[in-house]
Amino acid sequence: MYDIYFYKNLNKDDHCNHGNMLYLLIFATSAILTLIIAIINYINLYTARSGLRANEIGIRKVNGADKKDLIKQFMGESFVISTISFAFSIVLAEIFLPHFNNIIGKDLALNLFISPLTMLSMIFGMVLIAVFTGLYPAFYMSSFKTISILKKENIRGKHGLRSRRILMVFQFIITISLILGTLTIYSQMKFMVNKNLGYDKEHILYFGMNSDLKEHQESLKQKLLENTEIKEVAIVHSLPGNFRMEWGRNLDNGTHVSFFSIPCDEDFIPLLDLEIIEGHNFDPKFETDKNSYIINESFAQKYNLENPLSESSDGKKIIGVVKDFTFQSLHFPIKPMAFTYKTDWAWLVSVKVMGNNIEKAKEIIRENCSEFTDYKIWLRFLDTVIEKKYANDKQFSLIFTIFSVLAILISALGLLGLISFEANRRTKEIGIRKVLGASPLEIIKLFNKELIVLLGISSVISWTLGYFLLNNWLRNFAFRINMSWWQFALSTIITAFIALFTFSFLAYKAANSNPVEALKYE
């Protein structure tokens, strides 16, 4: 029973409450990646600003502080920042949780004081983050040599610069991957919304019959059709999105066939505007039509029926073939199905109404039904039921987009801080280059050259990773898009724009400053 909720082979069209483990893992991964970006930002900025604290470290070492004392100090700073952030995060979570619940349709709550386990796990997470963010800066900055600090030598070294480059590449990989994921998921959702399902689902209302309505179903149909607001009426067992009756039969040629069976009357196929590509629709005037099948293309293709109209099963002939249509959801391939003329098995009335006055049409349907029963009927729109089949996918798309935008913003803030510091660090270099005749454009190119190389490396890695993960997600859909080159290119272009615009703006500002002031720097 514990495994049923996340059982991977559970039919997504089943009427039961179940979850999607893949989506849950994607959300958890997105949250962790967002947190990793924040940790990278902290480490990058902390180590980048290490030169500004060199004097402090030197004085402490001269006054007897050893490496252990300095590590304790920097780790302590990390814990203080993490604790303050933890307090703010609880407040923000409480503020945003009601809005998040509206998006996901759940009623989540923190319950920090009701559930000690939740509080303990969050505190453990805070401690873990404090350790991760503080460990590298603490060891890195405590390793500075006192003599180098006092001589004002370059204490940052190649190691710190190399580490920041590696972390920046990792940050670019996450950002490009998230943008690529957002573009792909959006494209898939747009494809599903706009895809032609193969039938007309607009302006179709349906309701269930009780025994009174069932007894007078033909009279009810005629009365409904007398109204100008009603275009068509059909009796059917189930509608697209909820076809559930699967049968197994042997054709007269010995082939065993398995297919979805949809009992209906002669008006259902025209009501859905299905295209009959071979044979004809049911005609109640002919008794043979009442005991026959109308199959779809997939039925004929799967069982290699070269001439379907010559086939029969248990005395029932195939009298028609309809063009394939999506009778489940786009998560599933189109399977063999067959319409059967069995109105005694059909308990739903589907009504196609005029689109100019839906409320009036609803009232007409209720009034006509009240002539045959006291039963208060419920009315539902077919297109609304179909849309609910993709509610979880749309929900997933929205939440993933929110996660991605948040991660991209955090990444952009980190890049802004890091690039600002890098521009300040190279102020004297910019001044010297200007004195030697370098133009602002040449200085901007110089600044961006290294960034472009890092973006190129990040793009190759993130494209490979994104292609593998997103193709795996797209396998959840029988009908899906093919990932296009523009999605990969655009994900890198957006990331590059964020990084290069920030870097270029700061480089331009520095390049246009007075070189005298630049040479006085430090």
Task: Kindly describe this structure.
The protein has helices at residues 21-48, 54-62, 67-104, 116-142, 146-150, 157-194, 211-215, 217-225, 268-271, 287-290, 297-302, 358-370, 382-388, 391-425, 427-435, 440-474, 485-511, 515-519, and strands spanning 204-208, 230-236, 246-250, 256-264, 276-279, 292-296, 312-313, 316-322, 337-341, 348-353, 380-381. Among the domains are: 18-155, no CATH class; 204-388, no CATH class. With 522 residues, the protein is α+β, with helices and mostly antiparallel strands. The chain is 58% helix and 11% strand. The longest helix has 38 residues, at 67-104. The radius of gyration is 34 Å and the shape is elongated.
Write the layout of secondary structure elements.
Elements: H1 21-48, H2 54-62, H3 67-104, H4 116-142, H5 146-150, H6 157-194, E1 204-208, H7 211-215, H8 217-225, E2 230-236, E3 246-250, E4 256-264, H9 268-271, E5 276-279, H10 287-290, E6 292-296, H11 297-302, E7 312-313, E8 316-322, E9 337-341, E10 348-353, H12 358-370, E11 380-381, H13 382-388, H14 391-425, H15 427-435, H16 440-474, H17 485-511, H18 515-519
Parallel strand pairs: 4-9, 6-8
Antiparallel strand pairs: 1-10, 1-11, 2-10, 3-4, 5-8, 6-9, 7-8
Helix pairs in contact: 1-4, 1-6, 1-14, 3-4, 6-14, 6-16, 6-17, 14-17, 16-17
